[in-house]
Specification:
single chain, 454 residues, alpha/beta, 7-stranded mixed sheet, 6-stranded mixed sheet, 42% helix, 17% strand, flat
């Protein structure tokens, strides 16, 4: 039997131990599994209490079972659910009993969602939204993923595709009736009107997104500077917990330490790097090399110094903000709390610099710094909660669609056959966006990112 025709099972709730665990079964043998373990198939979509038994007749657990006959189920197949007590021993016993049923096996990562996609329960944009929702760490990520899961982009793409097909039919009809005098002109004119309207809508969606798809990964902010200026103390202050070792000895931080922050719903990864200095210690020297490399790849560098200006990293494209630390110490009071050294129109570009006076140990100036970081994240990731595009793949295919539509408009007056071919290319791009044509090569990559049980 082909693997896609087999019945699969997996834990669809959190890691054990837990109060309740949900084990889901999907495939043609789901009813047989219920009969074997629970003694009966309960009424559809009705929670039913049952004593589960293994093939030898030994009790497994007092559970609640549900039955969802296909196609009215999450995957479009017959689905059974077992709500059991979430102990490891209970789960192990249930897994063993499930695997003993012929043609029933453990699911691969993302296999439930892939079956739902293949059975028409959701398109590829919705599947990507589900994956993003599972991995969302902040509220803004959650809201963006939920828009994808609701199918808002998919609905627009299906509407655009249908309208392109209508316009294409008009142009091809004009080609077929080319010997009927003015008939081709009468057909091509309304087709071009439709295409121009479609192109305007797609361009509007593309223009409104900015860098919204970057919200999935968030920003990377590197804390850099010479040794013993308080980089690890600042890291701990931003994280509000002890994530880095603080020591008066130079060279304590030798590897890169990362912490994920939620700044007003924006995901920000802050990295604490080794103190940048010349050293003969090969281990510390490697840490300095990694620090320079990671800072060069960051979206923003926070260069920490005490009363002295210190060395600013050179050669990187990311903006560098100068943080004068230890203002709580005598003689380290700067002139004012925060001074703009240079502001550019786009904080996410170039090398705009800002200066802050802070005390990482006492907390002075941290609120102002965090506020500035939120503003920086907003400028880079956008503040519009109505964006439809969540991934670079989706943006690329919409851009390809727009290019094909624009080209069809430009050549419609001189070559209807070429215009029709460009419209077919636009339809194909939208089909790939939805996952309905020519996407087999990317399906494995997308669904492999899912956790087991989804």
């Amino acid at each position: 039997m082909h693997p896609r025709e087999q019945t699969i099972f997996a834990l669809s709730s959190g890691r054990p131990p837990s109060a309740i665990a949900l084990v889901r079964v999907s495939g043609p043998q789901a009813g047989a599994v219920l009969t074997s373990l629970a003694g009966q198939v309960p009424p559809p979509r009705m929670a039913t209490r049952a004593l589960l038994r293994d093939p030898a007749g030994q009790p497994i657990d007092d559970a609640v079972v549900l039955w969802f006959p296909g196609p009215a189920s999450a995957t479009g197949e017959d689905v059974a659910e077992f709500h059991i007590h979430g102990g490891r021993a209970v789960l192990a016993a249930l897994y063993s009993a499930l695997a003993a049923v012929p043609d029933v096996r453990a699911a691969e990562p993302g296999e439930f969602t892939r079956r739902a996609f293949e059975n028409g329960k959701l398109d590829l944009t919705e599947a990507e939204g589900l994956d993003d929702l599972i991995h969302a760490d902040t509220d803004r990520q959650r809201r963006q993923a939920l828009r994808q899961l609701k199918g808002l982009l998919g609905e627009r793409a299906r509407d655009w595709r249908a309208r392109i097909i209508e316009a294409s039919a008009l142009i091809e009809a004009g080609i077929d009736f080319s010997d009927e005098g003015d008939v081709p002109a009468e057909l091509i004119a309304p087709a071009l009107l439709k295409i121009k309207g479609l192109l305007a809508e797609i361009q509007e969606v593309l223009a409104a997104q900015g860098q919204s798809e970057r919200l999935r990964d968030g920003l990377v902010v590197a804390i850099a500077g010479p040794p013993n200026v308080g980089k690890s103390t600042l890291m701990n202050a931003l994280a509000r917990r002890e994530v880095a070792i603080v020591s008066p000895h130079a060279g304590t931080t030798r590897d890169i330490i990362e912490v994920q922050l939620d700044l007003d719903g924006y995901p920000v990864t802050v990295i604490d790097t080794a103190g940048i200095r010349e050293t003969d210690d090969p281990v510390e020297r490697e840490g300095v090399r990694r620090a320079r490399a990671r800072a060069a790849e960051a979206d923003l560098v926070l260069w920490l110094a005490d009363a002295q200006p210190g060395e600013i990293l050179a050669g990187g494209a990311a903006p560098v903000w100068l943080l004068r630390n230890k203002i709580d110490l005598a003689g380290n009071q700067p002139d004012g709390g925060k001074a703009d050294l240079e502001r550019e129109s786009s904080p996410g570009q170039g090398s705009s610099a800002m200066e802050f006076g802070i005390s990482a140990r006492r907390g002075d100036g941290l609120l102002e710094l965090i506020t500035a970081l939120v503003e920086f994240a907003q400028a880079c990731l956008g503040s519009d909660d109505g964006g439809l595009i969540g991934r670079a793949r989706q943006r690329t295919l919409l851009q390809e669609t727009a290019v094909s539509l624009r080209r069809s408009i430009e050549i419609a007056g001189t070559g209807e056959e070429l215009a029709a071919e460009d419209l077919r290319a636009a339809t194909h791009s939208l089909g790939r966006l939805l996952g309905r044509v020519d996407v087999e090569d990317i399906l494995d990559t997308i669904f492999r990112e899912f956790c087991i049980g989804k």
